[in-house]
Write a structure and sequence with these properties.
2 copies of one chain form a homodimer. The first copy, chain A, has about 220 residues and is mainly alpha-helical. The first copy, chain A, is built from 9 helices and no strands. The radius of gyration of chain A is 21 Å and the shape is elongated. Chain A starts with 7 loop residues before the first helix and ends with a helix. The interface between A and B is large, with 41 and 41 residues. Chain A binds a DNA duplex (30 and 30 nucleotides) through helix 1 and helix 3.
Chain lengths: ~220, ~220
DNA sequence: CAGTTCACCGATAGTACTATCGTTGAGCTG
DNA sequence: CAGCTCAACGATAGTACTATCGGTGAACTG
């Protein structure tokens, strides 16, 4: 009897995690099209009604899933960018700041696609996803500023936010291309991403030189 | 009686166009959440069953809408890029190649978002949207090649496709930012887009110089 | 060990929508 | 103008799913 001696609390937590993991595997396999409370419950091995013991509705479950995934992603990205900042002349560290998010997105393709879609859907249910995207973007802005991108004026900060936004969109588009089988070599996509960033790096340096010349 | 003397054929076409336009206005106002055959028919002033006289189902209508919008967009973009190519040193023409797609996307915000979402959803119903995105991307690749981006080797062509993909994703992300009220000034977003492209232009020129030096 | 809690269950009312059917009557055709 | 066509209609069967209810028994509590 390997499943005995579980407390009521532990059993409930286990069921909850089973529901979350069932939802995740359905999403990874079929996207959100095949997602329903009955389906999730069945794959988790419980009755459909039991779904509502753990979640208020499907949006509640998706929000939980999103917060967990988003928090993990954000933490991982801040860390890899911090490492790159500490070694500004190591090109491999810079490449890692692109490769790590790519790999994270590719780990759960359909979940990634689902959140992309949710971010584009305005409704109270998807609001948390949009908020999380905003938080991640804002962290990227901070990291770009720390890496030397200009952020003194209000205009420069607006520009930096656009750059951050663009970098995220670029990375996601390369991930989608990889998922669709168009870009089999991740290294090549990282090359392209680095070159895109380079456009702004040189623009920023030129602007900085100008400012320095004017100040001296 | 202003609506008399319409042939049966004309009357049918009118109803069809009314259904399409009703669907578009619902989408623009509420996205695809409020979309149903009954709702579209009601706003078009016909019975729900009449929907099926004109379309096989909702996906059929969306496909029609998408093909029309996509064809218009593609034509407009090829034209503005051709104009820019004819005057390679006119920065305003280059900016127009970014501003025109932005304005097109912003003309029907929710339709734009809907197609973005559909492109991320793999199903037989959304396949035409994905195909159209592929066609537009492929045209952009052609135009970039015509504008002098390297496309001699297989690797360069793969890279060019990634660049085209990235540019589209960048433009879309700026459009979304504008719709969300974060980037009120379209000119600033165009600045950022041009700078991103610049990263690849300089990279391409450097590579071309290298090749030239090696050849001489 | 008697009483309480509560996770889980089967059953089901309710919702929203899709897609089809046979009917009707206004236009078309010869 | 007689017969035909067919766009549009009301009615409705069918589908798929959500969310709630009261009952049950195993785990907790004192």
């Amino acid at each position: 009897m390997p499943e005995m001696a579980v407390s009521r609390r532990e059993a409930k937590d286990l069921t909850r995690r089973r529901l979350l993991s069932a939802a995740l595997s359905i999403i990874d396999a079929e996207g959100d099209a095949g997602l329903s409370t009955g389906r999730v419950a069945r794959e988790a091995g419980v009755a459909q009604a039991t779904f509502y013991v753990h979640f208020r509705n499907m949006d509640d479950l998706l929000r939980t899933l999103g917060e967990e995934a988003g928090r993990q992603l954000d933490t991982a990205l801040r860390e890899v960018r911090r490492t790159s900042r500490a070694a500004p002349d190591d090109p491999e560290k810079l490449r890692a700041t692109f490769r790590v998010p790519l790999e994270r997105m590719l780990a759960h393709p359909e979940l990634f696609r689902l959140f992309q879609r949710m971010r584009l859907t305005r409704s109270s249910a998807t609001a948390p996803v949009a908020e999380h995207a905003a938080r991640n973007r804002s962290h990227l802005v901070d990291d770009l500023a720390a890496a030397g991108f200009p952020h003194g004026t209000a205009r420069a900060r607006r520009r930096l936010e656009m750059i951050a936004d663009g970098l995220i969109a670029l990375t996601e588009s390369m991930a989608v291309g990889h998922l669709e089988g168009r870009y089999t070599d991740l290294d090549e996509t990282v090359d392209v991403l680095v070159a895109f960033l380079h456009g702004h790096r040189t623009a920023a340096r030129r602007a900085a030189d100008h400012t320095g010349a004017a100040a001296s």
